[in-house]
Amino acid sequence: IPGLGDDSVAIDNLITKQKGEVVYSFGEYLRRFVRETRARGATPIINSLTPRKFWENGRIRRTHGSFADWAEETARAENVPFVNLTELASAKMDTMPPARVDSLFGDASLHSSERGARLNAAAIVEGLRALGAADPLREYLRP
């Protein structure tokens, strides 16, 4: 369910064949992730989603009022570190010719190729380093 609310709905899952499965909003799933991670003694970090290969005015399109924004708002509300992977990786793709960006995807617009996964991983490390003292993984990242 799109959004940050505590909405839920019962569905008949066509894939698992489970009837009456309760699904929640994107924000509710993120809040559950944060609570469950903390309950296990770990430190949650929220990343936004990987970019999609949709062009707008010669750049990878950033969508506002959607998943990346919801992830950031949830991180802020839950007081956890946030890495804007969508923006960091999109900014790198913006500097590349379209044919090179094509090689970063294993399908038409969504899933990464190995090369794209490496670019996304590098963007996450860049985002973690930008957190400075707030980065709970800083001692594990090589220069």
Please tag this protein with its features.
143 residues
Explain how this protein is built.
It is globular, with a radius of gyration of 17 Å. The model has no long low-confidence stretch (mean pLDDT 92). 41% of the residues lie in helices and 11% in strands. With 143 residues, it is of the alpha+beta class. A hairpin with a 2-residue loop joins β4 and β5. The strands form three sheets. Strands 1-2 form a two-stranded antiparallel ribbon. Strands 3-6 form a two-stranded parallel ribbon. Strands 4-5 form a two-stranded antiparallel ribbon. α1 packs parallel to α2 and α3 crosses α5.
Q: What is the strand and helix layout of this fold?
A:
Layout: E1 8-11, E2 21-24, H1 26-39, E3 46-47, E4 55-56, E5 59-60, H2 67-78, E6 82-83, H3 85-94, H4 98-102, H5 114-130
Parallel strand pairs: 3-6
Antiparallel strand pairs: 1-2, 4-5
Helix pairs in contact: 1-2, 3-5
Oligomeric nature of the chains = single chain
Structural class based on helices, strands and sheet pairing: alpha+beta
- Alpha carbon gyration radius: 17 Å
Count of beta strands: 6
In the sheet with the most strands, the strands line up as 1-2
Q: What share of the residues lie within helices?
A: 40-55%
Low-confidence regions:
none
In a nutshell, what does this entry contain?
This protein has 143 residues and is of the alpha+beta class. The chain has five helices and six strands.
